Amino acid sequence: MAIAKAERLMNLALCLLGTRRPLSKRELRGSIEAYMEAGSDDSFNRMFERDKDDLRELGLVIETVENLDGETGYLARRDSNRLPPITLDAEEAAALGLAAKVWQQARLAGAASGALQKLRAAGMPEAEDAYDSQHSALEPRIPVHEAAFEPLMLACRDRRPVTFEYRKATAARPEPRQVEPWTLECWRGHWYLAGWDRDRQAERVFRLSRITGKVRSRAGAFTAPVPDVVTVRETVESWAGETATRSARIRLRSGSGYPLRARATEVREAGEGWDELEIPYGHGLDAWLVEFGPDVVVLEPEDLRADVVDRLRAVAKG
Fold it and tell me: Closest Cα to residue 179, out of 153, 157, 154, 206?
């Protein structure tokens, strides 16, 4: 089946690239054997529309025009499907190759690989990958496990408002949110969405792992201006707990919590299988500490301890 579809797509691409005038569905059906054998008109139409969409996703620019008889026709002009000369040096080519390896999520992996193949076909140098030769034991990855990632990525790109159910760490049940999405950022292995919360009329940051159900797009334009991308990243950084304004003292079970240990400014043994840490304290630290469960005890400040206890109680309630 895969071979038959690939052959069908290749034949359709060749027909669209080889014609000097728009070809109608009727003419394409009479030129491609698989379409002749499609059976009913409905079956052919569904197959043709899927194939056309697949070719466009692969990067083929297909124009839809009206021919002299008033019939809709299709063609792919060669000048529209040819990249300009690529002038990249070896280091730039290596950087693009490395970037294409980073994405682990399936949809982006395919897009990155396809883009790289097109650039190489257009003359991008096949330079040796200095990264592979020097760090062959390391492979860069950006993991994406949340189902909300792809629809939110597309909504950010297309500037489309979205709605979704969101469960705060201190809440037992999710709440509906209406958001104008700005950008997605990854901090400490977690993905965050920054955007404008229409109900609260304020910018908000949402952790993707707390989005439940489907992300649904909504029609209409954004109502709030989109800030500079650097400003948005600073906001995510602050909400994710990267911007420290105070210092917290916690007790951590020996042999656990290595990410916390990496951030600690001071670590000392507390006895009985526990260590005491001084750790920078910013927005979001309470949510991070909850992830370590019984391996962490907050000693001070008192408000951080209370926030962690509240979150644990909310989790216990389900």
Answer: 206
Polymer length of the chain: 318
- The answer to whether residues 96 and 88 touch, using CB atoms and an 8 Å cutoff, is yes
pLDDT of residue 201: 93
| Closest C-alpha among 5, 51, 6 to residue 28 | 51
Tens digits of residue pLDDT in 236-291:
666 655 556 788 899 999 988 887 888 788 999 999 999 999 988 776 677 778 88
pLDDT at 160: 92
Could you tell me if 198 and 178 are in contact, meaning their C-beta atoms sit under 8 angstroms apart?
yes
Which amino acid makes up residue 253? R
**In the numeric block, which tokens belong to residue 130?**
């200095």
Token pair for 144: 């994406």
Residue-wise pLDDT tens digits, 32-89: 888 888 888 888 998 999 898 888 877 788 888 886 677 888 988 877 666 566 666 6
Q: List Cβ neighbours of 268 (8 Å cut-off, separation of 6 or more).
A: 275, 276
User: What is the three-class DSSP state of 77?
Assistant: coil
Q: If you ran DSSP here, which 8-state letter would residue 318 be given?
A: -
Asked if 128 contacts 136 with a C-beta cutoff of 8 angstroms, the reply is no
Hunting for tokens 């860069």 — which residue is that?
Answer: 140
Q: Which residues 6+ apart lie within 8 Å of 197 measured at CB?
A: 177, 178, 179, 203, 204
The number of CA neighbours under 13 Å toward the Cβ of 100 is 18
